[in-house]
Design goal:
The complex is a heterotrimer of chains A (317), B (335) and C (282).
Chain A (H helix, E strand, L loop, with lengths): L5 E12 L2 E13 L4 E5 L6 H8 L7 E10 L2 E2 L5 H10 L1 E4 L13 H11 L6 H14 L16 H13 L5 E5 L7 H18 L2 E6 L2 H7 L2 E6 L2 E7 H6 L4 H9 L37 H5 L5 E3 L2 E3 L5
Parallel strand pairs in A: 3-8, 3-9, 6-7, 7-8
Antiparallel strand pairs in A: 1-2, 1-4, 4-5, 9-10, 10-12, 11-12
Chain B lengths: L4 E10 L8 E11 L6 E5 L6 H8 L7 E6 L2 E2 L5 H10 E4 L14 H10 L6 H14 L4 H4 L9 H13 L5 E5 L7 H18 L2 E6 L2 H7 L2 E6 L2 E7 H6 L4 H8 L48 E5 L2 E3 L9 E2 L4 H6 L1
Parallel strand pairs in B: 3-8, 3-9, 6-7, 7-8
Antiparallel strand pairs in B: 1-2, 1-4, 4-5, 9-10, 10-12, 11-12, 11-13
Chain C lengths: L1 H9 L1 H23 L31 H37 L1 H16 L2 H11 L6 H12 L1 H14 L3 H8 L4 H37 L10 H10 L2 H4 L2 H29 L8
Helix pairs in contact in C: 1-2, 2-3, 2-12, 3-4, 3-6, 3-7, 3-9, 3-12, 4-7, 5-6, 6-9, 7-9, 8-9, 9-10, 9-12, 10-12
The chains are: A alpha/beta (317), B alpha/beta (335), C mainly alpha (282).
Chain lengths: 317, 335, 282
């Protein structure tokens, strides 16, 4: 069991809203081994994107990290000052944010934007070396070298997303966090982008956290999957286990509700609504929608614990 | 008996403006929906395939550059006031975005009371209220949780269901749903799709379900039209087409969907598609430049070949089969 | 009521703007009760008296009690501004909606006229119009003169707003629900524009007051009316600054300052309501 490259310990993130405090991330802990692919699945409001931002210390007021710690290669990120954390972003942990392909600067060429990532981290290369580095990065993500001279609007969605991956890996990070990298893309392009991500990750020996909600995608890409609900981690298990034997009722319901090409059956959604993070129910956050809820579920909040090799937060597991 | 709504060889070309080429959004598609036989027709394609253009043409929100869209046999552009009213009542829509469709100035009641008022569906306030509550219940919502609220106080899924309720009020014969669940949370999609399917099975309303997601289309559709770059490539009974796709594009589409319960070889199956120097731009098969089977025959856009009783494929690989004229597609589908 | 005060804490500009204008209103109302406005006419009181208990604002060379002049003149000046502003924005709104919703030839014509009109220096046109009118102007005629140009800019800006709103999803849904053009304009588009229209209105009023004062200072205004601008005209005419009659120009200047500051803060405050992105978090 090798040392984890990333460790998140009891992280809590809250947003101060005039109408009440919103607990966006609630006591989340997990560890990532080098080269591992971890998936984080959950719906809107589950806290997965906030978790990604808080790992990078990119939460801005009115949000704040209330408690917990993040360790990268054994070093506590909270101990770093502004300079230190900036150095870690992109060189230690890289984030490909949601919708990033639409956040590329429309008036700069792709090559320039990749180079900017290098320059921002103090890499003073000569123009030749810089161009060579950019070309190498583009090749790594499967884009032809002439893309460096193009503007974002000249590229297709998939190509833009691969350019964003190129920016993310420019400084050879040890952890890549990809937040819904393919949500706006067609299935065929999605496969290309994920194949690129897989290849790049293997070459770098980096670990990947893939955030999304497509179980099929998770099943085909990640090694382990974590399920988030209302800011809490409710289940973490190896992917084959979670798909075959989901233990948390929410995980079970989620997998059952996702339409697939495998069977034309009755469409089963999850009854009820996701809870408002400002006004969470007592005990287990899922109990109002859970068909197996007991009195204990209504009163006592379940803790993420090991059950037969799998981490579940459920009283009934 | 003329079909409820019919597209006869409709095409839409957007002129490019100064110095730019025009864009072909849809090329000669025919489609017919019969009021007597409610069914769910799925239109599947990626962005740029022309599916949204088709929806707008059928709804009368845009005019075709070639061909006609007919309501009960009459061209939409020539409908008189009364016929237009009847058309609006019979054909309704649900759109993709559950946010922009609400006027932020009003409570959600407004979007429900407007059609009641405009179509004269109720004689009194009480009757109107009754109709609205019934429609909300039909989509699985509780009126007391919805009425009186502002749009931002409801979740995306609730907003989208209210939109379906709105579409139901004039008791339409057809609801055109353009990506109704793509902006809704994963677990709610099944519920909303379920209620759409229910509308067909129990209330006799046809649905034209437009999406890029083949999996959801497979769950709700009876028939399917696969569009690629403004052209129809395959159409017919959905079961057959999804389990044994025949057109190379459909095959690519089906294989590209990641499955939760299958072996982990999805990524390995990805290979950069052949960019064969075959330049089929204007008149040939639109998929030729990505197709492993492309030959010189593909320089001319293939007609629709009837490979099965309930399937047509636009690919020269099937040229031994009898053809179906494009114009006939509409009536053939609804037969 | 408490909600109102809470809002004022978040939007201090609005509060300040309303406070300034309210102070002026109070001044005019209470002053009208306590002071005889007949003294605003020439030859009512001894001339050129510095401020004293009898004449708190002093008197001018023609024998007007300047306090009375301010009390009588402020509403007149504001009236010109309001009439011109409302007329201008009213006309501008109608033209803007027609142009933006129906597009086509109507849009081209309306936009063309507005564009050409905006390139011509406004004050110049106003001067020419004012000079060409035979006889002396009344306050109301003044308002109409200013209104003749006040609709140009609002037409353009409101048109731009309507153009963007008209593409919203809810407009298409309204069409599907059976609504027709005018109904969509009034029921769907207009309500969302109200804050923007209010801000435009205040702007237009401000600009109209400025234009009218400008014309009056040049001597092209209603000569017999004790408006603020005319007072400044007489200040100039009699070289009051050189002669050291400081009270004569101080009073109107302070009041004009209060009017513009009040309207300015009101605009900023309304802007914040109209554009939620400018809102400060509590």
């Amino acid at each position: 069991m090798s040392e984890p490259v990333l460790r998140v310990e009891r992280l809590r993130v809250a947003f101060d809203h005039p109408l009440g405090k919103v607990q966006a991330v609630d006591d989340v802990s997990f560890a990532l081994t080098p080269g591992e692919r971890l998936g984080l699945a959950g719906e809107s409001g589950s806290g997965k994107s906030t978790l990604a931002l808080s790992i990078m210390r990119m939460i801005k007021p009115p949000g704040r990290i209330e408690a917990g710690a993040v360790w990268l290669n054994g070093g506590r990120l909270a101990d770093l000052d502004e300079e230190g954390i900036r150095a870690v972003r992109l060189a230690g942990i890289a984030l490909v944010p949601q919708g990033s392909m639409n956040s590329l600067n429309p008036i700069l060429r792709i090559g320039q934007q990749i180079a900017d990532a290098l320059i921002d981290h103090g890499l003073r290369l000569g123009r030749r070396a810089e161009e060579w580095r950019v070309a190498a990065l583009l090749t790594e993500v499967g884009l032809p070298a002439n893309v460096a001279r193009m503007y974002p609007h000249e590229l297709s969605g998939g190509m833009k997303q691969r350019a964003c991956i190129a920016i993310a890996i420019a400084l050879r990070p040890k952890v890549i966090i990809a937040d819904e990298p393919t949500s706006a893309l067609d299935v065929v392009v999605q496969r290309q982008v994920m194949a690129t991500l897989a290849r790049v990750q293997q070459e770098l020996g980096a670990a990947v956290i893939l955030i999304g909600h497509d179980m099929g995608l998770m099943a085909q890409f990640v090694d382990r999957l974590g399920i988030m609900y209302a800011g809490r981690l409710v289940e973490v298990a190896p992917i084959a286990d979670i798909i075959a034997h989901p233990r948390h009722p929410y995980t079970r319901a989620l997998i059952a509700s996702l339409p697939s090409l495998e069977a034309r059956g009755a469409l089963a959604g999850i009854p009820g609504l996701a809870p408002s993070l400002r006004d969470l129910p007592p005990g287990c956050a899922f109990h109002p929608r859970c068909e197996f809820a007991t009195d204990r579920c209504r009163e006592e909040r379940p803790v993420l614990r090991d059950v037969a090799g799998v981490d579940v937060a459920c009283h009934l597991a | 008996m003329a079909p409820l709504i019919e597209a006869v060889d409709v095409g839409k070309r957007f002129t490019g403006g100064l110095g730019r080429e025009s864009i072909l959004a849809l090329d000669g598609l025919s489609l017919a929906i019969d009021a007597e036989k409610p069914s769910v027709i799925a239109v599947v394609g990626e962005s740029g395939s022309g599916k949204t253009t088709l929806a707008r043409l059928l709804l009368g929100l845009a005019e075709p550059t070639t061909g006609e869209v007919r309501y009960r046999g009459e061209d939409l552009r020539r409908l008189g006031r009364n016929s237009w009213r009847a058309f609006r009542r019979d054909v309704q829509a649900v759109f993709q975005d559950p946010y922009g469709v609400y006027n932020p100035f009003y409570r959600v009641d407004h979007v429900l009371s407007t059609p009641v008022r405009q179509f004269g569906l109720a004689a009194s306030r009480a009757e109107a209220r009754g109709l609205i509550e019934e429609a909300l219940r039909a989509v699985g919502l509780r009126p007391e949780e919805i009425l009186g609220r502002y749009p931002h106080q409801l979740s995306g899924g609730q907003r989208q269901r209210v939109m379906v309720a709105r579409a139901l009020l004039p008791k339409p014969k057809l609801i055109i749903a353009d990506e109704p669940v793509s902006m809704v949370d994963a677990s709610l999609r099944a519920t909303i799709l379920g209620s759409l399917r229910n509308l067909t099975d129990q209330h006799g309303i046809s649905i034209l379900y437009i999406t890029h997601d083949l999996a959801t289309a497979y769950q709700v559709g009876d028939q399917i039209l696969v569009l690629y770059r403004a052209h129809l490539v395959e159409a017919g009974a959905i079961d057959r087409i999804v389990t044994t796709p025949q057109h190379p594009y459909t095959q690519l589409l089906v294989s590209a969907i990641p499955h939760a319960h299958a072996t982990r070889d999805w990524i390995k199956q990805e290979n950069e598609e052949p960019r064969n120097g075959v330049d089929m731009m204007s008149h040939g098969c639109p998929f030729a430049d990505r197709c492993a089977h492309a030959t010189s025959l593909c320089a001319v856009a293939p007609p629709l070949y009837r490979t099965e009783l309930r399937r047509v494929v636009a690919c020269v690989l099937y040229r031994e089969y009898p053809t179906l004229a494009a114009r006939e597609l509409g009536s053939w589908l609804s037969a | 009521m408490r909600a109102v005060f809470r809002y004022f804490r978040r939007n201090p500009s609005l509060a300040l703007g309303i406070a300034l204008l309210a102070a002026l209103a109070l001044f005019v109302v209470i002053g009208g009760i306590l002071v005889d406005t007949e003294d605003a006419r020439p030859l009512s009181v001894p001339t050129l008296r510095a401020p004293s208990w009898a004449y708190p604002f002093g008197t001018d060379r023609q024998g007007r009690d300047l306090l009375a002049v301010m009390i009588a003149g402020t509403p007149l000046t504001l009236r010109i501004g309001f009439i011109a502003g409302f007329l201008g924005v009213g006309l501008g709104t109608v033209l803007a909606f027609i142009a933006a919703y129906y597009r086509g030839v109507l849009d081209t014509v309306i936009r063309g006229i507005a564009d050409i009109g905006l390139t011509v220096p406004g004050l110049l046109v106003l001067i020419i119009i004012a000079v060409s009118i035979k006889g002396t102007l009344t306050v109301n005629q003044m308002a109409i003169v200013v209104a003749s140009l006040a609709w140009l800019y609002p037409t353009r800006t409101i048109r731009a707003q309507v153009l963007s709103l008209r593409e919203r999803g809810y407009v298409e849904v309204a069409r599907l629900s059976g609504m027709s053009g005018p109904a969509i304009i009034f029921l769907e588009l207009m309500p969302n524009l109200l804050p923007y229209l209010a801000a435009t209105l205040v702007n237009a009023v401000s600009a109209a007051i400025l234009a009218s004062i400008g014309l009056e200072v040049l001597g092209l205004g209603p000569i017999d009316a004790p408006t603020l601008g005319m007072t400044l005209y007489w200040v100039n005419f009699n070289a009051a600054m050189i002669n050291g009659w400081w009270w004569w120009w101080t009073a109107p200047t302070v009041i004009i300052l209060m009017v513009f500051l009040g309207l300015f803060f009101l605009t900023v405050g309304l802007d914040e309501i109209a554009n939620p992105r400018l809102r400060r978090s509590a």
